[in-house]
Each structure stands twice: as C-alpha cells, then as structure tokens.
Amino acid sequence: MPTPVSRHMVSTTNDVPGYRLVRPLGIVRGITVRSRSIVGNVGAALQTLVGGNITLYTELCEKARVEAFELMLDHAAALGANAVIGMRYDANEVAQGVTEVLAYGTAVQVEPGG
Question: Which domains does the chain have, with CATH numbers?
Fold first, then answer.
C-alpha cells in the first residue's frame, strides 16, 4: 500500500515552503458526483425562506470537497508522490441537481530544504 500524502503537503502554489522539488509525477485528480435528495431540497427550500446560510447545501458541498480531496491524495500516493502542488477545485453541474466536484493538482516528490 502506498504511503499516504499528508494534508499539510498540499499547496495551491507551485512549491511547498521549506521543501525542494525533486521530481514531478504528473497531474492527479479526485472526482465525486453528488446529488441533492428530495428531503434535502425541501429542507433547503425552508431555510431559504428565513435567509442566511443554507446549511444543508453547505454540508453537502463540504462533504463533496472533502471526498474529492481525499481521492486526489490517494491518486498522488499511488504515483509515489509525497506532495501535491498547484491544487485547485472545480465544480460543474452535470444534470439538474447533480454536481461534479473535482480536486486536482500536480503530484510531486519533494525533500526538505528549499
């Protein structure tokens, strides 16, 4: 089983502070597709009447991002990476009420010193 990539070794920049890039390993991604349930839609509709944060949708979005992020880390570890740089999220509606969340970046091997 590959060594997992630590969450603190993921950067939205093109480096990991305090580390030197040894080898790029390629693009990695994690994709999840989520739909809203009927119950969730009704609950969210009620929350919109009051205004403010629609917590049911916030929780759904956060779960999707976490799942996509973890899948990206698994993909990076499978390539032998110990870090991911240039990490980003993207989301697209693939059908009404169905959203794809993508976490992606470049898997790299780094070593201390930078």
Answer: 7-35+66-112 (3.30.110.70)
